[in-house]
């Protein structure tokens, strides 16, 4: 062992130090007793007359120890090594850094130091090390030792008291390295917060305060450099570590708050925010100066950041000096006297001659009021009368909005302090005046923003803690009801309904009367959709749920088949009612046993009423029913899904109408038979909606039978609505099917039958039906990223060569990259992999481009051109950008095709013009001609507008490329100025102005 260790030591001193340390550590790890033998083996090097050799030998100990496990050495070994390293600190200046580094490793790896050793380490460093003479990396070793000792031997260090404090101050003094400063700030925070500073308080503050505020710019070439934010946070914690710093910090903060540098003022305020809760009573002596300075900052309004910091700071200051408990509302205590003095200094700004400054003053007092319940009780009586006066008397709507905002911010504080009786009483004293103002603004103004603020204010004032009398809440409820039956603006309506909901929630006794008023409104000519929307919003408990649910069901039963629009509103309302109360188990149970059954009965019974003349009405009705069952299954528990699935499958497979409550003779239903009347087959829409929203894992029984039946319907049923529903149902089942062999078991037989149906010898109608099913299965497979995707998509691309099906395949490919959140989305428990659209494009774009080139001579290149346009129209530009050089010519050709994807193609072209200039510029002449033609001749208004937007986007291209076209474009755009549609004319003016001013901005 001695021989081998000697070889490794020689290797270390032969400059291969890293490998030697690893080799020796690996050997020592087997037996800790050998570590002292290793030091003995180093004796000749440790006692060498050469300073460099002694230094390297000393550091070798630390290098090896750093590679050994934590707590590897025993307590006795630790003390021996530590004492030896301490002796080396008394060596020459060139050896000290190596000893410090090894000592830093030792204190970090050996957590249990013998008694007395931590103190000896600190005192030796204080005595022997002149830290300022060392390099920044060596100084870091010193600080790391202190940090390690405070972490593992904190009690021993704390017992040193002032000796450690002054010693650390001397070692830290004049430190400039940011990494070292971060360690120093951590140590200083610990010492200041956990140890009595005594006579060294001022010295500790001086060594920290000299860095305030932090002025540091990280090096851009050092990605691991300490950030300014880290240093600022570290210093801020130090200054907030003890109240003893207050007498030194506060004058410093006041000085910086009056600095010409905005950043210094902001940092002083933010640091005071952190210090205020600690300084508390020490703030009183500086209160007048602080509030005066902060008031000036707020009213100067130099920047939003400074105003925000000043408001937070003044709140923190008053919060710190507020009593812990709300005492008598006297103006004689320090807090009240200071607020009154601040008010007297600021009252001149409340006259309203300068609205902005006036609002700033009010916002300042709102911040003061937010400091504590006591502060709120003092501030509100002082400023509220003036604020109410401005809100009611200001002639300009813009001024009213500003004052109403300040009023709302002040009154909103009641939510923060509503547990204090004195605070509540302050608002109650002004309750009538506030309500009168809000009601006046709500009823006498047409400004939506003012109405919104009025509703928010009244909602606050009608909370049970403030509104003792139920009649006041009733008056407000009546006002809201009237508004809810007439307001159609989305924002205002949302606010009205939210307030009404909260009012009923806080005062449930109002609920029955409100519901009664709304039900009566249905017969008074009010808009049914608004009434039902409001009815749903006021449901907050089971009793109201029952009343509203029964009312909606009754109204639904009264609807005639020709009044399908009324039926749709009732079904939508029932779905919203379920979503609102879905967390209440009793309401869900009631809904399943009454509402759902009645809707099923209604759907089945209506099969006797639909006629060929009412096919479209039936489609609308069944679509809404599908949405209802999708919403229902989306929120049901697994047991409820199983129960409802069994009920639906019995109805569809066994024609069992008794299980949905239809008794007596009823014509036999066979919804899954392709030969059944379309009135019967359309019932599968209910099943489709339930499968789309629900958990497929709970729909086990008869799932394969349903899948097979849907496939047959998709191919053989003559009703197009039924076929579309069957295709979606197939796709959803395939997308949601559990991972494993079941997917292939479902899919493989279908693919073979679809290939046969797609063969050229079959009738075109059959081929189109099979193609539609294939497209839906491909979409489902792409969404979940299944292995069958390549088979499905490659077959589709092969069909582009088909003269009959090629055009339909080309347009149908758009479906695969379109968003279909109503069918496939995580919210509906579908399997949707991220970036599936981008993956589909990347894997297949080459096939499309090659197909286009290959078919130039056959005349079928248009199929591929349409396919490229269909796929690219729904993808983000970032995905297409690498391929734009090849795609831009295709897109230009796509502009000549008048198909459903033309609008999307124009949108993509516009993005390409703005973000892929180099790819578009070579084709600028052809593109301009195409866009001018579309802008003037196309029959669709949307296409004309998009074409004009593209032309306007072209002005961002290099001027020297498009300036030759300026005269032509300006002249041609004049024709669009006479377009029959106002929106087209508006866009034409914008585009023409951009071309007329071409190049002027650059000059």
Describe this structure in words.
It is found in: Cytoplasm, Cytoskeleton, Spindle; Nucleus. Keywords: Cytoplasm, Cytoskeleton, DNA damage, DNA repair, Nucleus, Repeat. Helix 21 packs parallel to helix 24 (421-429) and helix 46 (861-872) crosses helix 48 (884-894). The protein starts with a helix and ends in a 7-residue tail after the last helix. The longest helix is centred in the middle third of the chain and has 21 residues, at 373-393. Helix content is 70%, strand content 0%. The protein has 55 helices and no strands. The mean pLDDT is 87. The protein is globular and about 105 Å long. With 1003 residues, the protein is mostly helical.
**First-to-last CA distance:** 83 Å
Weakly predicted, low-confidence segments: none
Number of strands: 0
- Let me know the largest β-sheet: none
Radius of gyration, CA atoms, in whole angstroms: 40 Å
Layout of helices and strands:
Blueprint: H1 2-13, H2 17-28, H3 34-41, H4 43-46, H5 51-66, H6 75-89, H7 96-109, H8 117-128, H9 136-152, H10 154-158, H11 162-172, H12 178-194, H13 201-209, H14 228-239, H15 246-257, H16 262-279, H17 287-300, H18 304-321, H19 334-346, H20 355-369, H21 373-393, H22 397-411, H23 414-417, H24 421-429, H25 431-444, H26 448-461, H27 470-484, H28 490-506, H29 511-521, H30 528-537, H31 542-557, H32 564-580, H33 585-605, H34 615-635, H35 638-654, H36 678-681, H37 684-693, H38 703-716, H39 720-736, H40 741-758, H41 764-784, H42 789-798, H43 806-812, H44 814-817, H45 836-854, H46 861-872, H47 877-880, H48 884-894, H49 902-915, H50 917-920, H51 924-937, H52 941-953, H53 959-962, H54 966-976, H55 982-996
Domain MMS19 N-terminal: 39-299
Protein name: MMS19 nucleotide excision repair protein
Subcellular location: Cytoplasm, Cytoskeleton, Spindle; Nucleus
């Amino acid at each position: 062992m001695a021989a081998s260790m000697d070889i490794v030591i020689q290797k270390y001193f032969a400059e291969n130090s890293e490998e030697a340390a690893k080799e020796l550590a690996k050997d020592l790890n087997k037996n800790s007793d050998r570590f002292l033998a290793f030091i003995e083996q180093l004796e000749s090097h440790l006692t060498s007359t050469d300073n460099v050799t002694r230094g390297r030998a000393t550091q070798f100990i630390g290098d090896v120890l750093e590679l050994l496990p934590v707590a590897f050495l025993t307590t006795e070994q630790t003390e021996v090594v530590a004492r030896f390293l301490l002796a080396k600190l008394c060596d020459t200046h060139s050896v000290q850094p190596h000893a410090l580094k090894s000592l830093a490793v030792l204190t970090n790896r050996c957590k249990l130091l013998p008694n007395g050793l931590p103190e000896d380490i600190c005192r030796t460093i204080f005595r022997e090390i002149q830290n300022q003479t060392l390099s920044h990396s060596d100084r870091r070793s010193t600080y790391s030792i202190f940090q390690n000792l405070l972490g593992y031997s904190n009690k021993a260090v704390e017992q040193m008291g002032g000796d450690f404090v002054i010693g650390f101050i001397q070692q830290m003094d004049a430190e400039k390295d940011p990494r070292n400063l971060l360690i120093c700030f951590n140590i200083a925070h610990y010492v200041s917060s956990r140890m009595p500073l005594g006579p060294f308080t001022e010295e500790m503050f001086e060594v920290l305060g000299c860095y305030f505020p932090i002025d540091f710019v990280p090096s851009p070439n050092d990605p691991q450099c300490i950030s300014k934010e880290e240093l600022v946070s570290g210093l801020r914690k130090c200054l907030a570590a003890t109240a003893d710093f207050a007498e030194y910090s506060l004058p410093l903060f006041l000085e910086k708050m009056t600095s010409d540098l905005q950043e210094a003022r902001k940092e002083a305020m933010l640091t005071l925010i952190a210090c205020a809760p600690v300084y508390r009573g020490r703030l009183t002596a500086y209160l007048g100066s602080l509030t005066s300075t902060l008031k000036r900052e707020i009213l100067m309004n130099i920047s939003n950041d400074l105003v925000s910091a000043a408001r937070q700071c003044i709140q923190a200051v008053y919060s710190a000096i507020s009593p812990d408990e709300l005492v008598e509302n006297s103006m004689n205590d320090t807090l009240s006297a200071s607020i009154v003095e601040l008010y007297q200094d600021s009252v001149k700004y409340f006259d309203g001659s300068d609205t902005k400054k006036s609002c700033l003053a009010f916002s300042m007092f709102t911040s003061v009021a937010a400091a504590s319940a006591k502060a709120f009780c003092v501030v509100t009586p002082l400023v509220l009368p003036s604020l109410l006066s401005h809100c009611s008397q200001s002639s300009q709507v813009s001024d009213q909005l500003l004052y109403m905002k300040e009023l709302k911010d002040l009154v909103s504080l009641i939510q923060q302090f509503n547990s204090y009786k004195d605070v509540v009483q302050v608002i109650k004293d002004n309750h009538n005046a506030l309500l009168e103002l809000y009601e006046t603004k709500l009823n006498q103004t047409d400004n939506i923003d003012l109405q919104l603020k009025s509703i928010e204010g009244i909602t606050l004032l009608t909370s049970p803690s403030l509104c003792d009398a139920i009649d006041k809440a009733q008056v407000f409820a009546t006002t809201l009801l009237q508004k809810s039956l007439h307001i159609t603006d989305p924002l205002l309506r949302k606010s009205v309904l939210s307030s009404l909901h909260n009012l009923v929630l806080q005062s449930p006794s109002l609920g029955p009367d409100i519901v009664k008023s709304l039900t009566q409104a249905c017969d008074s000519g009010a808009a049914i959709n608004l009434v039902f929307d409001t009815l749903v919003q006021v449901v907050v408990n089971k009793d109201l749920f029952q009343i509203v649910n029964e009312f909606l069901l009754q109204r639904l039963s009264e609807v005639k088949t020709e009044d399908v629009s009324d039926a749709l509103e009732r079904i939508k309302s029932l779905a919203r009612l379920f979503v609102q109360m879905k967390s209440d188990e009793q309401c869900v149970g009631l809904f399943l046993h009454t509402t759902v059954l009645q809707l099923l009965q209604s759907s089945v019974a209506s099969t006797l009423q639909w006629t060929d003349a009412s096919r479209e009405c039936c489609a609308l009705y069944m679509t809404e029913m599908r949405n209802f069952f999708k919403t229902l299954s989306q929120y049901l528990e697994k047991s409820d899904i199983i129960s409802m699935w069994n009920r639906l499958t019995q109805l569809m497979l066994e024609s069992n109408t008794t299980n949905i409550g239809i008794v007596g003779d009823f014509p036999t239903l066979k919804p899954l038979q392709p030969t059944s009347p379309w009135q019967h087959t359309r019932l599968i829409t209910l099943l489709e909606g339930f499968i789309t929203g629900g958990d497929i894992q709970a729909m086990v029984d008869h799932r394969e039978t349903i899948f097979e039946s849907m496939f047959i319907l998709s191919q053989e049923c003559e009703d197009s609505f039924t076929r579309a529903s069957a295709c979606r149902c197939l796709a959803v089942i395939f997308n949601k099917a559990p991972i494993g062999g079941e997917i292939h078991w479902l899919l493989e037989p279908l693919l073979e039958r679809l290939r046969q149906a797609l063969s050229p010898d079959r009738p075109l109608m059959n081929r189109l039906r099979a193609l539609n099913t294939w497209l839906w299965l491909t979409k489902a497979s792409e969404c979940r990223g299944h292995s069958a995707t390549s088979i499905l998509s490659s077959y589709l691309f092969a069909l582009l060569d088909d003269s009959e099906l090629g055009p339909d395949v080309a347009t149908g490919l758009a479906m695969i990259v379109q968003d279909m959140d109503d069918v496939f989305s995580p919210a509906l428990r579908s399997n949707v992999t991220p970036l599936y659209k981008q993956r589909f494009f990347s894997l297949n774009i080459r096939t499309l481009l090659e197909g286009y080139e290959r078919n130039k001579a056959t005349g079928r290149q248009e199929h591929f051109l349409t396919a490229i346009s269909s796929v690219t129209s729904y993808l983000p530009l970032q995905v297409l950008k690498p391929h734009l050089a090849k795609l831009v010519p295709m897109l230009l050709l796509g502009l000549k095709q008048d198909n459903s994807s033309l609008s999307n193609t124009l949108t993509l072209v516009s993005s390409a013009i703005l973000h892929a200039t180099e790819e578009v510029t070579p084709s600028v002449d052809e593109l301009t001609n195409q866009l001018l033609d579309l802008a003037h001749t196309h029959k669709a208004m949307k296409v004309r507008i998009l074409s004009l937007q593209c032309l306007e986007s072209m002005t961002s291209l290099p001027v020297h490329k498009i300036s030759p076209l300026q005269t032509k474009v300006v002249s041609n755009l004049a024709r669009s100025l006479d377009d029959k549609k106002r929106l087209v004319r508006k866009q034409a003016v914008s585009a023409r102005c951009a071309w007329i001013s071409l190049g002027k901005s650059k000059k």
